[in-house]
Amino acid sequence: MESASDMSSGTEAVTMTTADFTKQLGHFVSGATLKVIPARRNAKLVVFAWLVERFACDRRYTEPEVNDALREAHPDVATIRRGLYDEHFVDRADGLYWRTPGEARLQIVETAAASP
After folding, report:
1. Residue 46 CA, distance from chain mean position
2. What CATH number should be reported for the domain holding residue 38?
């Protein structure tokens, strides 16, 4: 069961540098293959941001099309598809999926912001 802090953290946007994004992605991806689905939310957001690039912003996809695209990266397409939806990288209705501005969940900046 999730604690209140676990549930609230699921709605917060995450900011990281391009270097941190690339480093985290490297822990989970080898070429075009996802080695393992990460457990921690920040790492999942990195992986989901990478995976959602497989889908055009202006197109609707059937579930089999989504599964085929995701299967190229990892065999557990149901878990990944659900994660993309839960974190708002894709939306769905009437058996169709489309990419959303879910990238807002993960803000990638060129350099770390200076502390005040």
Report:
1. 6
2. 1.10.10
Q: Are 55 and 69 in contact (CB under 8 A)?
A: yes
8 located within any domain: no
Could you give the count of Cα atoms lying within 13 Å of 66 in the half-sphere of its Cβ? 25
Both structure tokens of 96: 């169709």
Instruction: Read off the pLDDT of residues 57-103 as tens digits, 9 standing for 90 and up.
Output: 999 999 999 999 999 999 999 999 999 999 999 999 999 999 997 66
Give the total number of structural domains in the chain. Answer: 1
Q: Which two tokens stand for residue 24?
A: 């985290």
CA distances from 40 to 13, 25, 36, 65, 72 (A): 14, 13, 12, 27, 22
Q: How many CB atoms lie within 10 A of CB 22?
A: 12
**What's the CA gap between 18 and 106, in Å, rounded?**
11
The size of the chain, in residues, is 116
